[in-house]
Design brief:
This protein has 191 residues and is mainly α. The chain is 67% helix and 0% strand. The protein has nine helices and no strands.
Length: 191
């Protein structure tokens, strides 16, 4: 019981001293309301580390560098959990053969739009005239809908809107397109 009390006092003291530091480190990787959620989960994680490691390595908890490593590694693991791709669950062959046999005739195809445009290929073709970094700026702005301030912060680009205007002009020069009608003629499925 005495060891648990020591850990509780130590945990409270660490939070009192380094709460601002922890939140600052978390803000480097998260934004907005996520910071408070991650901070709460980090406190639980820190308490569990205190319970397991304090009796063995007391000196660790007096160094700010070690605490920075703990909070940084926790933030990285939270980002990995957040951005993890969902597992793909494949359907067995028995189930798919039945479904394919139901839809084997062409009668269902009358409701479907034929020749639906592939905008991603057109965008990739036009962005092929630019470097990957420049293409990423345009994709983030128009394809993913990110704000100019966000793009500026993430890619460290000053005056994003001016850069985008110059990139558009560069695409027009390199592709040889002088107006929108020529672009539509180049991609016959966009008409």
């Amino acid at each position: 019981m005495n060891e648990k009390r020591i850990i509780d006092v130590l945990f409270t003291e660490i939070l009192n001293r380094y709460q601002g530091f922890f939140i600052q480190q978390i803000r480097l990787k998260f934004e907005g309301d996520e910071v408070n959620d991650v901070y709460q989960e980090f406190c639980i994680h820190l308490y569990s580390i205190l319970k397991t490691k304090y009796s063995e390595e007391i000196d660790l908890f007096s160094t700010k560098a070690w605490l920075k490593t703990v909070v940084s590694n926790f933030c990285i693991s939270m980002l990995r959990k957040k951005n993890r791709k969902k597992a793909i669950h494949f359907v067995s062959e028995e189930k798919t053969t039945f479904v394919r046999s139901i839809f084997s005739d062409d009668s269902y195809a009358t409701d479907r739009q034929m020749g639906e445009p592939n905008y991603f290929d057109a965008m990739s073709d036009l962005l092929g005239h630019l470097s990957k970094r420049d293409a990423l700026i345009l994709k983030m702005k128009y394809y993913y809908g990110r704000s100019s301030a966000s793009i500026s912060r993430l890619l460290n680009v000053a005056h994003v809107d001016v850069t985008i205007g110059r990139l558009k002009q560069r695409i027009l020069k390199k592709s040889g397109i002088t107006n929108l009608d020529e672009l539509l003629l180049k991609y016959d499925w966009l008409r």
